[in-house]
Amino acid sequence: MSAGTGQPADLQQLDHVWGPRPGFVGWLGQCNHKAVGRRFIFTAFAFLLVGGAMALLMRTQLAVPANDVLGPDAFNQLFTMHGTIMMFLFVVPMLEGFTIYVAPLSLGARDMPMPRLNALGYWVYLLGGLFLLSSFLVGAVPDSGWFAYVPLTGPDYSPGLNLDFWLLGVTMLEVAGIVGAIEVVTLVARFRAPGMSIFRMPIFVWSGFIASVMILFAFPPLVAGTVLLELDRKLGTVFYDATAGGDPLLWQHLFWWFGHPEVYIQLIPALGMAAAIATAAAGRRMAGRTAVITALVAIGILSFGLWVHHMYATGIPLLATSLFTAASFMIAIPSGVIVMAFIGTMWWGRIRWSAAMLYVVAFVFVFVAGGITGVMVAMVPFDWQAHDTYFIVAHFHYVLVGGSLFPILGALHFWMPKLTGRMLDERLGVVAFALNFVGFNLTFFPQHALGLFGMPRRVWTYQEGLGWDGLNLVSTAGSYVMGLGMLVFTLALLRAHLPGAPTAPDDPWGADSLEWATASPAPNYNFRSTIRVRSPEPLWDRRSTLGDRDGPDPDPPEWQRRIDTAESGLRQAVATTGLDARPDHIVTLPGHSLHPLWVSLSLAVLLVGVLVDAGVLAVVGLVGLVAASAAWLWPGVE
Amino acid sequence: MAVWHSRTAHPIGERARTAAMGTWGLWLTLAVLATFVAGLAAAALYLHTGQQAWPPPDIRPPSGRPAAIALALTVLGAAAGDHARRVMGRGGRRAAAVALATATTAQSTGFVVLVAHLGTLPFHWGDHAYASVYWVHTAFAAWFVGVSALVLAAVLVQTLVGLVDPQRHLELTNAAIHAWFATAAGAVLLALVHLLPTTGGGG
After folding, report:
1. Residue A118 counted as domain residue
2. Per-residue pLDDT, A638
């Protein structure tokens, strides 16, 4: 024991080595996965509230015919920024944040394999988000929809800075997403606890891994597309100008090559979250566990063959539309397998109900509804009728709210003990759930009918007597109910952090995966000693050796003793082989770095220079970027 | 020391059986960049498909000689970088430095040739989609080669100050791999500029 701390000396050493440096600079330079993951999660939640407030403003405008709460310009700006925030600033970063925080713990690792890259992802994300939102301050808010179709977004029809904010900001956010994905893929490939073979990985980690691989191949073409569009706007190239040999449809192809997998990049990790919650609540292995993992992989692959189903109304040849219709139908098969697995897990398990589990049930219900309308719009004749109507708005909100938001809210309940050491209030959680579920369905179910009655999407107002009045009023009322639900959820979140709020036990749910084998919140070093895994549910079997629960290994090999005692004063972790997770080599990780922040700031300066046509500023940013990158990559850690 | 000569990783057994983190990071980054190049390539091919003539009758295609020279220099640079990696592995630090200097010079010259070629083009990038593709794809080819030259130069400096040596030279290995990638990316982009049929898919 060490005097004064009540901790054994090796634990104190571990805590010291893996802990952050003191002070504000220490806080800025934190690279540890828990710090970065928490930052992602809470920043993304703040953006969710901003995007949700925009949705309420839009619904207020549409509550009654000929309303004038918002003008057409403000409405255009709000629906553009609402979609952009939800897609780029909320869902993907939130899911990446959970993966960054939870996955290393679930794998029995001490950190991510490239912690500085981790921090870079966060800073670029934060600055990209602030860059986008700063468009409000200068009165040049993007206003052409979250998909920025040309020619509307070309230099002729959007001459201001509005779309430049969007293109440059989204490029930053894409870079942040790619950086995080590289990190997660390497984590899964190398940082699994000894014995955790690839098929023993938790489903949530599988889902984060699949989504990350998808990001690597989905995001870069959009970066290419946005670069070409920005060149059209800033320099006068004509990639998208039909009058000079360009083609506006090129943008749609590049955008939807990203955009359709993006839907599944948002869905797949959320499915993994729901699986983790359902498994713990049911107290049994996920039904058809291997089939679920196979289905997730299948969805990930198939999602790259569907992008044209967003373009049926653009004059695509009939043969192509037929092929993409077939591909769109095919994705219903793995989706159905997953839904049946959830039903089976609940059916055969003994459910311990919680707010988190309620969100999982809501996810299954809402996602199935969204999937059914998805099959409808995959049919070309129906799509031609429903295209650009409120039916589509209803469809994708059922998919994205059901498939992403509800699992995320459930995951916040489920993993909050591990994130912060506090439990969210269950009563407030259930109230928030009820309001969110009822409010969501009140808001979006009537929009199916509105679409079938011919109401186009993105209209800022409508005339009386078209048959849309009552349904719009119901939809707006529903949005207020859901807004109230989010308010209650936020209150529960804040309440949990008040002084004196009850602290969480290590494993409040009796769950199966390794993050629950350590303290709540997870300590700086994650686990007291190296874990050895012998099943997919290491906390439920009696054969796995767990760090905190079992105490230090009495007779560890030399390399393990070195890691478990941190005697070298370095952050060392064990890297394992790809499939069977045998210990392979010891890696020394960096613990504190401001380089990611400097790189991110330089990138932001560069893009601001491009935005305002300030060549000197852009050059300063570029030089800073090269210098900061060189300093980062200079050999340092031994 | 493991076969990959990392300064931050130490094998548990006789030798490591898996790649170092730096190698993983490099290959995943190259996968991302390759997908980016594929996006640019798809754009060029798509625009070509929609045209009757490529380039249009009022634009004379420039000579492909500068691109060929730049590509040859880039290949030479990548080969020299690879040679540097091999001789460093055999303990020849000085010979590796010479090879790295050759690689840096060759790829920098390739970059300069491409940029200089852009300065002599008889058309503006806004004249036609062909002109846009010519300018932007050549510029991106130059960018890939230029970044590779910068990376090789940084490793050269690290070698000269003794940070990269026969025991620890993962940086050099990665720079050499990256140089080959830049060569391949440049070759693909320049091929799209110079080798597409003059009759477009819309012809």
Report:
1. yes
2. 36
* Confidence check: pLDDT of B127 > 70: yes
User: Assign residue A421 a region: left if phi > 0, alpha if psi is -120 to 50, beta otherwise?
Assistant: left
Q: How many domains, in total, are found in chain A? A: 3
Question: Does residue A253 belong to the interface with chain B, where contact is any CB pair within 8 Å?
Answer: yes
Is the same domain home to A172 and A258?
Answer: yes
Do A469 and A534 belong to one domain?
Answer: no
Q: Rounded distance, CA A134 to CA A148, Å? A: 18
Task: Judge if A605 and A525 occupy the same domain.
Answer: no
- State how many domains chain B has: 1
Q: Is residue A507 part of a domain?
A: no
Any domain includes B2: no
Which residues contact residue A598 at a Cβ distance below 8 angstroms, ignoring those fewer than 6 apart? A624, A628, A631
pLDDT of residue B203: 52
Residue span of the structural domain in which B174 resides = 26-194
Q: Please tell me the predicted confidence (pLDDT) of residue A318.
A: 86
Q: Which positions 91-150 of B are in contact with A (Cβ < 8 Å)?
A: 124-133, 135-136, 150
Rounded to whole angstroms, what are the CA distances from B7 to A114, A337, B92?
14, 46, 18
Do A557 and A408 lie in one domain? The reply is no
Q: Are residues A536 and A627 in the same domain?
A: no
* Distance (Å, whole) CA B71 – CA B110: 7
Residue B138, C-beta contacts closer than 8 angstroms, at least 6 positions apart: B67, B114, B117, B118, B189, B190, B193
> Is B46 a domain residue?
yes
**Residue B9: CA atoms inside 13 Å, Cβ hemisphere, count?**
28
Residue A552's pLDDT is what?
A: 64
Predicted confidence at residue B48, as pLDDT, reads 95
Enumerate residue ranges in chain A where pLDDT < 50.
Answer: 1-5, 637-638
Which pLDDT value is given to residue B7? 73
Residue with more model confidence, A56 or B11:
A56
Nearest to B25 among A182, A584, A626 (CB): A182
Q: pTM of the full predicted structure?
A: 0.95
At residue A67, the pLDDT reads 96
User: Are residues A484 and A519 both part of a single domain?
Assistant: no
Per-residue pLDDT tens digits for A84-96: 999 999 999 999 9
| The pLDDT of residue A406 | 98
- Residue A517's domain comprises 9-15+512-589
B36 closest CB neighbour out of A182, A220, A239: A220
Whether A587 and B8 lie within 8 Å, measured CB to CB: yes
Burial of A610 (0-12, 13-18, 19+ CB in 10 A): buried
Judge whether residue B173 has pLDDT over 90. Answer: yes
User: Residue A287 falls within a domain, yes or no?
Assistant: yes
Whether residues A545 and A408 share a domain: the answer is no
Say whether B126 and A236 touch across the interface (CB within 8 A).
yes
A473 assigned to some structural domain:
yes
Which residue out of A238, A250, A254, A622 would a mutagenesis test of the B interface target, given it has the greatest number of B Cβ atoms within 10 Å?
A: A238
